[in-house]
């Protein structure tokens, strides 16, 4: 292991219109702007909800070359210059204890270092942070390595960003209690899971996390029936506390974020993973799970603000046993159906199962894509003791996304045919 990950700090989006995307995160998803940085060549906006932080980056066209901008400190901070054709979520920032040492070890292992260790000082005397950027083995994904142990956080984002408002979202939000990033899912080409797993295990010490009770060690969690062809494999990073390292951050108790690798199976034809790979122009981050303490209230609040969610087949809520499962967990099928929320009971044995009167379960729902392409979307997830990814829900979630994408494809094809016909008539 070359670098020990302490926690996930933020996720960066590279988009063509940062104001529009940041505005949607704020007005619809209830994130709060905490920092901004605007130069002649870049615009960076940081938004927070609980400990979940998105940094929205936009490359500005102002006549100043990138070389000039970077020489004058007007390029990106904590990231790299984007060279991508579509909007994309493409940087997951990890906090580590020693950026310089981690970067050297990763470089020795053959990793591509895009930004060498760089110190950024707070002009207001709050200390400094050090960061570097490493290229991942997954498509356009990069990882910023960040050490902020010498930075006295006064409520802002990071040195180099201007504080927006009071720099926090410290007020409790009972309507939309999102707390942290639960998981990050990569969409990858077929037969690439082994390579991705190996890269993260060897370079960051990630460990396998089993999604289902019957998951095959080598093959992962496979769905290969009823028109579904999907392979899922999950991994998580070791907690620093487990290996005796102290974490000098006030929010060190933030739950760990897991990583999921999704790939399609060849015999089932085109599907949502393949659609992502095509529209995204390659592998990358397909979706990110937002953990919430109350998914019903969160989904209702976001829906009222304009967020659209995928809806599962109506029969999901009347399936044999599902209605009873929902009721036994203390929920009402009609309430969950209103927002397309799915519930799955964790049937795996747990030592402290007796402390969960309604059993261990989770609830989840997917949003529709954030960008114009059918690529990146978000998931809301509420865990009630369950640690997996809704083994019983995966089929319903798959079908809801697949149905939407097939409808989108059909509408695009019809629009194209109409335009072609109109062109011929003229």
TrEMBL record:
Domain spans labelled VOC: 7-148, 180-339
One GO-annotated biological process of the protein: aromatic amino acid metabolic process
Top-rank taxon, per record: Eukaryota
Binding annotation for Fe cation: 183, 287, 379
Signal peptide: none
Cofactor: Fe cation
Reactions catalysed according to its record: 3-(4-hydroxyphenyl)pyruvate + O2 = homogentisate + CO2
PROSITE patterns named among the record's database cross-references: VOC
GO molecular function, one term: metal ion binding
Keyword annotations: Dioxygenase, Iron, Metal-binding, Oxidoreductase, Repeat
InterPro entries named among the record's database cross-references: 4OHPhenylPyrv_dOase, 4OHPhenylPyrv_dOase_C, 4OHPhenylPyrv_dOase_N, Glyas_Bleomycin-R_OHBP_Dase, Glyas_Fos-R_dOase_dom, VOC_core
SUPFAM superfamilies: Glyoxalase/Bleomycin resistance protein/Dihydroxybiphenyl dioxygenase
CC cofactor note: Binds 1 Fe cation per subunit.
Pfam family, one: Glyoxalase
Sequence similarity: Belongs to the 4HPPD family.
Role of this protein: Catalyzes the conversion of 4-hydroxyphenylpyruvic acid to homogentisic acid, one of the steps in tyrosine catabolism.
Protein name: 4-hydroxyphenylpyruvate dioxygenase
Organism: Astyanax mexicanus
Origin organism lineage: Eukaryota, Metazoa, Chordata, Craniata, Vertebrata
